[in-house]
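Reviewer comment 2.1 asked that we show a complete input and output for one of the modelled complexes. We chose the heme C case, as it is the one discussed in the main text.
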Amino acid sequence: MKKPVLALFASLLVFSCENVDRSMYEKVEAVPPPSGSVPALGTKIKIDYSQVDLKKLASPFPLDAKAGERGAGLYGVYCAPCHGITGNSDTKIAQKMDLPPPGLATDRVRKELSDAEIFVKILASDSLMPKYRAELEDNEAWEIVAHVRLLGQSRK
Ligand code: HEC
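Response of the prediction step:
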């Protein structure tokens, strides 16, 4: 086959593929989400917990060891990079921060900070510590509080 003919075939092939592709996309309709789906991040209206009365704020479930174990994975993702897996805040990131993250297995956290205060700190921190309002559901934040309580028990 001569070169010009080949070129013609090639361009025809590309052209028709493009057309096939385009009509494929045109036929795709938006699929409604299955019932009970939860909207993705950022679309849910969240309470501004920094304005809430801490005395009225309580976990809907007991903050016991079971809840603490459920919160371990989330703690590992969201807190351990700064506060350490054991809560001793001796991490590489912590060492580089101007305001070093305090330890979480301390008497201060154990005795002076209420569950609600830690909950609000997680969701609505107003300091160098990030706030996780957009990333975490309330129940997840309570589970992390329960996990912080477990860390507190590990060093009495
Ligand atoms: C980027 C590093 C960083 C991450 C990640 C982080 N923190 Fe912090 N955290 C800090 C810093 C810095 C402070 C000290 C300033 C302050 O109190 O806001 C702090 C303070 C705290 C305090 C107050 C301690 C006290 O003695 O007053 C608690 C409780 C706490 N963090 C819990 C958590 C939990 C739980 C998570 C995970 C959801 C978390 N932090 C994630 C940096 C971090």
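The chain has a mean pLDDT of 84. We note this here for comparison with the apo prediction described in Section 3.2.
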